[in-house]
Design brief:
It is a single chain. With about 130 residues, the chain is of the alpha+beta class. It is about 40% helix and about 20% strand. Helix 1 packs across helix 3 and helix 2 crosses helix 3. The chain is globular, with a radius of gyration of 15 Å. The protein starts with a strand and ends in a 5-residue tail after the last helix.
């Protein structure tokens, strides 16, 4: 789902946060996959945004997760890729608000907070898989 920003400040803060968030999410996914029974591969996707999709396989299960959706869950407050839809088809857009805890008083990235939230989101994803 494409995020829609309430104002220019939210857009600018998202610009600051997205690349570091993407890197932290991928690193925590790598760490989790090293100790998991799930096998992860990545494939290119073009919708709703160009990027990557994580394909998790284990036995007969195949779970696909858009990496941007994970990043958005880290960066934004209460981001839900399935808002106003059933759990199988994403909405087109969602108005988002930046999690300002991820930005320190000087306007820079709060790295410990960003790292903790990215790690938490990855743990939640794996905890909710059919087989842990």
């Amino acid at each position: 789902m494409k995020p829609k920003f309430k104002n220019t400040l939210d857009w600018e803060q998202a610009q600051l946060l997205m690349q570091p968030t993407f890197i932290r999410v991928l690193d925590h996914l790598r760490q989790k996959l090293e100790t998991s029974t799930w096998i992860g591969t990545y494939e290119d996707v073009q919708t709703p945004l160009p990027g990557y999709q994580l394909c998790l396989t284990h036995q007969e299960y195949l779970i696909k997760i858009n990496i941007w959706d994970i990043c958005f869950q880290v960066c934004f407050i209460d981001y839900n890729p399935y808002l106003d839809q059933d759990e199988t088809s994403p909405s087109e857009t969602q108005i988002v608000s930046i999690d300002t805890n991820l930005i320190d008083k000087t306007g820079n990235i709060n790295w410990p907070c960003l790292d903790d939230k990215a790690k938490q989101k990855i743990q939640e994803i794996f905890a909710n898989l059919p087989i842990h």
